[in-house]
Amino acid sequence: QVQLVESGGGLVQPGGSLRLSCAASGSIFSINIMGWYRQAPGEQRDLVALITRGGSTNYADSVKGRFTISRDNAKNTVYLQMNSLKPEDTAVYYCNADGRLNYSGGSRFNSWGQGTQVTVSS
Known about the structure:
This protein is mainly beta. Helices cover 0% and strands 60% of the residues. The protein is built from no helices and 11 strands. Strands 2, 4, 5, 6, 9, 10 and 11 form a 7-stranded mixed β-sheet that branches. Strands 1-3-8-7 form a 4-stranded antiparallel β-sheet, with no helix packed on it.
């Protein structure tokens, strides 16, 4: 129905930057909220940042001032610019989208991407 494909992860040194992208495709009528979550080994999946269709944002305290979330509504794509990366940012980063389908009476969907690994290490 709705597929999310992430890209942009990798290995970076402390203090470096990475930009993650996530493109949504499929039977989409609209996407209200798009977000990024992360999960480190042995830990739960936690919110990193959210952005509404109108551009309102919300960040985890641990990334405020370092990460910036943005989106291109025309492309159904969300981005996460990560600066001043720290070793504790190491995790698998997952994209999430919540919206309405273009069939089934506009039923709501909530989909996850497959995840992209971000490793911060010297």
